[in-house]
Specification:
By secondary structure, the chain is an alpha+beta fold. The protein folds into 3 domains: 232 residues, Beta-lactamase (3-Layer(aba) Sandwich); 106 residues, D-tyrosyl-trna(Tyr) Deacylase, Chain: A (3-Layer(bba) Sandwich), CATH 3.50.80.20; 92 residues, no CATH class. 30% of the residues lie in helices and 21% in strands. The chain is built from 12 helices and 21 strands. The strands form 5 sheets. The chain has a 5-stranded antiparallel sheet with strand order 2-1-21-20-19, with helices on both faces. Strands 15-8-6-3-16 form a 5-stranded mixed sheet, with helices on one face. Strands 12-11-10-9-13 form a 5-stranded mixed sheet. Helix 3 packs antiparallel against helix 7 and helix 3 crosses helix 8. The longest helix has 16 residues. The protein is globular. The N terminus is likely disordered.
């Protein structure tokens, strides 16, 4: 054979050998045209987008774009928290809230105090607190001659104010974590139009001791635009709410959740108000303190299983619940000391290192929820996390906790083909992203992570939808 053909065959063989290496398996780095066009319409540069698209199972890379760059993930950070929780605790794990009746009970009277100790349960909402107090009454207690003592000591007290993040202290998503978190330290105002009386009835839940809220507000004609602003409510003191404005009949029934303006005393006012509404009497007061350490509790209230909590965190991007879970993981690792944010950060980074390798600068953990300007993660690390989850015993629990595009949760407005992707969303003023699983036309399942960090990030949502749609079509050649 002539020398030139032999050299050509040798070169082809070398190329074939090299293409068996990862170098020749590098994914395409050019964005699909429809994604580029959507970014241009949003006036967002391509450099603001990071992407990692992998085939689930094999890990084959289909599209990579600045995938190692650490960016602000917003609520995509909840994927790290919830995955770590499912892996460390298991889907069936529950929180327990122990309760002590310290003293004899005779003729409906507890001659002593009632103690309630928090362990971080994020689902101690009004209905479950009612069940806890109902259990106390079923044990024969109608009157408490001592105090009701609330123990928050499982979590270290967090410094700062609820308005520190964005100045919106009345927003429930800004409520701080608490080992004994009752009803998210929030109230709910329901506005129900009564056309005959020409007012909207104002219904308040839960009942708080000492609370005074206007029970009605005048109705007005016109469209339902900024109905909250039209009420002209003074939110400085949510326990003494007055409305100087009106409520549009066209709004129908609406609900306005508000974080309580005095979170330090919220638990005491809630328990006192609910206990009184249930017909109970309290001779002492509701106060903070320390639960007995040397006696067994009279009973324990169990939370819903972790898988239900994870579903609520991811489907609806619940920041408060995510931060409760974040601190709970630290508490479970060191149960003999109060969980701190620093310990929780260290614990989460340790888990990522053990399961995925050293994260280095690709991961900056803040509070477990993503409600932060300082948090950072790379698309590559999140994609590796989702691959790990895909092959784990808790794969179904994590995947089913993610919003379904065009169907529910925070993804119900997605314009990609409905029902074909389970994706966690992330949104802040200058962040928009998705991360999760996409089912393609061929039946393949892909891991997709796409994050935009830019002042116009939320205008880039159509570009992210276009990327999801492109993956559904098995990432066709461009």
């Amino acid at each position: 054979m002539p020398a030139r053909p032999r050299r050509w065959l040798a070169l082809c063989g070398l190329i074939a050998v090299l293409c068996g290496l990862p170098l020749c398996a590098t994914a395409a780095r050019a964005l699909p045209p429809e994604v580029v066009a959507a970014l241009q319409r949003a006036r967002v540069p391509e450099q603001a987008l990071v992407v990692q698209l992998l085939e689930a199972g094999s890990g084959r890379s289909v599209l990579s774009l600045r995938e190692q760059e650490a960016v602000n993930p917003a609520s995509l950070a909840k994927l790290v928290t919830t995955a770590a929780a499912l892996d460390q605790l298991g889907p069936a794990w529950t929180w327990t809230t122990p309760v002590w009746l310290q003293g004899p009970v005779r003729d409906g009277v507890l001659d002593g105090s009632l103690y309630i100790k928090g362990s971080g349960d994020p689902k101690l909402v009004m209905e479950r607190l009612w069940l806890l107090l109902r259990r106390v009454q079923q044990l024969g207690v109608r009157e408490i001659r001592g105090d009701i003592v609330l123990d928050h000591s499982a979590f270290a007290i967090q410094e700062g104010d609820a308005a520190d993040f964005d100045g919106e202290g009345h927003r429930p998503y800004n409520v701080r974590a608490d080992a004994l978190l009752l009803n998210y330290k929030s109230i709910s105002l329901s506005f129900v139009p009564d056309a005959a009386a020409r007012v909207a009835r104002v219904l308040v839940e839960p009942p708080l001791a000492g609370s005074r809220v206007d029970h009605s507000v005048p109705l007005s004609a016109g469209p339902c635009d900024d109905w909250r602003g039209s009420l002209k409510a003074n939110l400085a003191d949510t326990s003494q709410l007055r409305f100087a404005g009106s409520y549009a009949t066209a709004c129908g029934e609406r609900i306005w959740p508000l974080a309580d303006s005095a979170p330090a005393t919220f638990n005491a006012r809630l328990i006192e108000g609910l206990w009184q509404e249930m017909g109970g009497q309290l001779r002492g007061r509701v106060r903070d303190g320390t639960a007995p350490a040397d006696t067994r509790p009279s009973f324990e209230l169990q939370s819903p299983p972790l898988l239900e909590v994870v579903r609520e965190i991811n489907k609806f991007s619940n920041n408060v619940m995510a931060q409760q879970l974040f601190l709970t993981l630290a508490l479970q690792r060191e149960p003999d000391r109060p969980a701190t944010v620093a310990a929780a950060r260290s614990n989460l980074r340790r888990w990522v290192t053990e399961r995925l390798g050293e994260p280095s600068a690709e991961l900056v953990v803040t509070n477990g929820s993503g409600l932060s300007r300082e948090g950072r993660v790379s698309a590559r690390l999140l994609a590796r996390l989702l691959l790990l989850a895909h092959d784990s015993p808790w794969a179904a629990e994590l995947a089913s906790s993610l919003p379904i595009n065009g169907v529910d949760g925070t993804l119900r407005r997605s314009r990609a083909t409905p029902g074909r992707a389970h994706l966690k969303t992330g949104s802040l003023r200058d962040v928009a992203g998705v991360a999760g699983y996409v089912l393609s036309d061929s039946g393949r399942r892909y891991v997709l992570v796409a994050i935009v960090n830019h002042a116009q990030a939320n205008a880039a949502r159509p570009a992210i939808d276009a990327l999801v749609q492109w993956a559904m079509r098995d990432a066709p050649a461009r």
